[in-house]
Amino acid sequence: MSLDISFIGILIGSIMASSVPLILAASGELITERSGVLNLGVEGMMIIGAISGFALMVITDNLFIAIVGSMLSGVIISLIFGFLTQSLLTNHVATGLALTIFGIGLSAMLGKNFVGIPGKEFPILFSSLRESIPFFGPILFGHSIVLYFAFALPFLTNYFLKKTKLGLVVRAVGDSPVSASNQGINVILVRYCCILYGGAMCGLAGAYLSLIYTPQWIENMTAGRGWIALALVVFATWSPIKVLIGALIFGGITILQLHMQAIGFRIPVQFLSALPYLMTIIVLVVISRDSRKIKLNTPTSLGRIFYREK
Amino acid sequence: MYKNFFRYLISAIFLLGFSVNSNADFKVGFVYVGPTGDHGWTFQHHEGRNAVEAAGIKTTFVESVPEGADAERVIRQLAQSGHDLIFTTSFGYMDPTNKVAKDFPNVKFEHATGYKREHSNVSTYSARFYEGRTLLGHIAGKMTKTNTIGYIASFPIPEVIRGINAMTLAAQKVNPNIKTKIVWVFTWYDPGKEAEAAQALIDQGADVIMQHTDSTAPVQTAEKAGVWSFGQASDMQRFAPKSILTSIIDDWAPYYVERAIAARDGTWNQQDTWHGLKEGMVAMGPYNSAMGADLVKEVEQLQKDLASGKVHSFTGPIYDQKGNILVAEGKVADDGMLAGMSVYVKGVEGDIPK
Fold first, then answer.
1. A130 has pLDDT over 90
2. What CA–CA distance (Å, rounded) separates B148 from B209?
3. Which residue of B185, B191, B196 is in closest CB contact with A216?
4. Which domains does chain B have, with CATH numbers?
């Protein structure tokens, strides 16, 4: 048991790797929700992304196609959700739940022939720097490209929402679709785009699991991470940076509690297992207790059905 | 009148749902808790079913049946549709199996890993996986350089604790300095979490990783980190060819074939089966040549001795963590004690979660 500085570097590196799927899925869902659409199908879209990515990797032997394909599969399955909720005006909550159940079932069916096939090594970047620089090496280098993208994403999302005109449009649609519509914004189109974007990010989050993190396909391998991502968005009060913080805390405590067990801390294991959930909620509630800011960030029309009277 | 009509309609729909033809002579039904492609528990039961089929006996199966109300409905359905022998292959099917057995005295039932045989047409069966753990412990004790064995545990039930103890006792015998570090993940199957647990154990100095969970993630993590590992439930060698030293394999096939033939020929009777290496219900995967010829020979001998009964996994003196004697010198633990095992033996670190 060594707790020296280079070990802590390795630990932080593995914490970062474990929070990637949460960051990706939560960032995608955040945009969807900011446009006023509540999509509870995150878990379903992730698992579809996981099987699509893995299946494409096995079939084409090309990781690039696998990654792009997983995002496309997320787009396609979220299109079903978009069509139902935006064009047929079904209830968001029920449709999202159905999407998750559908996704888990469909992925199990599609995945039948891919169980038990070993995955392929995913290339990592700057692996030589990882070894040669103590502490910072394992933190900054030796990760897959998806990880770097995931860590840039919350900042890009923040910039998009706050500084760009399109971001303003998304927020307007989420806050007051009627006013936005009166301004000549095509609310349904904007919401469609946000739903599809959310689907793409969830698909990528799933593919990260099946291609990079634990390269294999097993039924139900997302194991509830989609639900955690959903909760993160709410507890982070729809702020992309807080989503990142929340995901890191969750991933961090999950891994730390395993280490604490291995070291032999005399703390009840059940408590340790519950710790990630507890700490993430506490920290996020504490850092976002400014009610004015919450009001500002909360999409007012979240989950409400919008239609234009003709 | 309409009421009856709907009743028939609904039962017809249910019958269609699990369509099983009822014109064959002798049929065996299987109820699985997971999908046949889980590459672990259910996969191995399905292999057993295939063997029964290969022996010329008709079989049907229903997969991914949740433990609970659904289970009883599915078992009842199989019994109603002319199955003569039904294997229910998960612990949670215990009560439903007995309930249905009461209503179908002419159908034979076989419940895996349970202990309730409330009616004369219910048998139970399980495997002595701990014998395999003894072999793993022996290998681990010899192979470790850091004297630290990492163990990924699922739930604190006797089955899992028995495995931890059997492994530790065997490892201590060949290497008194051994330490067993245990991480409880509270899941049978979450590849991400299992991988993280394996990595945490490796970071904490374990250079042999063992799992009582079902996915192949731990062995893959071990392969990447360059430490040793063991496969669980089925041969996982192709997932980590360098790292895996051997696998414990559940082989239900001979038992299933034997029982199916007995039931067909009218020689089936109620029994409680707990088979191990001797009968082949527990089998070992190929031994990694990295172990060296001497160790392989040693382990093969131990495997033979366990099978013949010359060596028992739990031979006294065995002490618990506080130093109280559990099994006296020269004695071996009886099956009752093994079945209810709920304390760690001396040398295991930490507490069992309550």
1. no
2. 9
3. B191
4. 2-127 (3.40.50.2300), 129-249+283-339 (3.40.50.2300)
